[in-house]
Design a protein that fits this description.
Blueprint (H helix, E strand, L loop, with lengths): L2 E8 L3 H5 L11 H16 L4 E11 L3 E4 L3 E6 L11 E6 L2 H13 L4 E4 L8 H10 L6 E8 L4 H17 L3 E7 L9 H4 L9 H16 L2 H14 L7 H10 L9 E2 L4 E3 L2 E3 L2 E3 L7
Parallel strand pairs: 1-8, 2-7, 2-8, 3-6
Antiparallel strand pairs: 1-12, 4-5, 9-12, 10-11
The chain binds fe (ii) ion.
The site of fe (ii) ion has 6 residues, from strand 2.
């Protein structure tokens, strides 16, 4: 029987990629770099053989989608911020078998999902930036699931439950990564560059800090009850689908694990960012 060995909320902001390039931004995201590397180290230590990544930059508008290619190999440039991320070469094994199990379980739960293997379907940077730090030797398979930007928190809770059923049916040790922001309000373009290291508003920062307290204290029931409102009021990235999948996978209101924060909360181009590793309850591992 397969096993869930990791469930983590992670950052993927392009400024982390800038941070490792020569130039004036070199080193600005050192703590986030270290946190992503630590997630990779822990995944290996726990025997993970697949990273299942809820990618908030693979934005779907109808249904749920998995990139089930045998191999992910290409060169990437961000259409959103080409000056931040370009010429990113990658080559990872995919996981068609787990993709199919996930599709079956999503369908069994009454929702629609498709597995794709189109040659031009590449990875997005919410997968690529973390993988660069976590999977440098490409030894762990990569399976992205997209985030439907028009989906509800409730739909994504059910997707998370389907992911867990699929993991259990597999023979894999799976590390699940919710790759997305906390608050995600971009500033107006005119002042965007001045907020490279900041959050758009004090309200968003305060709400994000309260969320981190809830996660650290295991107050998941309080958090998931307010998650639809949090998503709406703090401009959730990718409908906060990644976060809803994460807690759906972990047991939703019944989950009482205490998240371990691996880097200080930081602002990046107006958005709130963090890396948190959530313990897997023994009953679902
Ligand atoms: Fe993002």
């Amino acid at each position: 029987m397969g096993e869930l060995v990791m469930a983590a909320k992670i950052t993927h902001v392009p400024s982390i990629w800038l941070s490792i390039q020569p130039g004036k931004h070199f080193g600005i995201r050192k703590p986030a770099e270290a946190a992503l590397e630590e997630i990779g180290r822990r995944a290996r230590e726990r025997g993970a053989d697949t990273f299942l990544v809820a990618d908030t930059h693979w934005m779907n508008s109808i249904g749920f989608h998995l990139n089930g290619k045998e191999r992910h190999s290409a060169s990437y440039v961000s259409h959103e911020l080409p000056h931040f991320i370009h010429d990113l070469e990658y080559d990872y094994a995919g996981d068609p078998e787990l993709a199919e199990l996930v599709r079956e379980e999503i369908a069994a739960g009454g929702q629609k999902a498709r597995v794709h293997t189109y040659k031009d379907l590449g990875l997005e940077y919410a997968t690529l930036v973390p993988m660069y730090f976590m999977n440098g030797d490409s030894s762990i398979r990569v399976l992205p699931i997209g985030c439907n930007i028009y989906s509800t928190i409730e739909e994504n809770r059910r997707i998370g439950e389907a992911l867990l059923r699929a993991v259990r049916r597999s023979d894999r040790k799976v590390a699940f990564l919710a790759s997305g922001s906390l608050s995600h309000a971009f500033p107006p373009n005119e002042i965007a560059e001045s907020l490279l290291n900041d959050v758009s508003s004090e309200i968003n920062r305060q709400v994000d800090m309260a969320v981190l307290d809830m996660w650290a204290e295991g107050r998941t029931a309080d958090f998931v009850d307010m998650l639809p409102d949090y998503n709406r009021r703090c401009t959730g990235e990718g409908a906060m689908a990644d976060t809803a999948m994460l807690f759906g996978l972990l047991g939703w209101r019944d989950y009482t694990g205490k998240g371990e924060q691996l880097c200080p909360y930081f602002g990046s181009s107006g958005t709130g960012q963090v890396v948190v590793d959530f313990p897997i309850p023994t009953e679902i591992a």
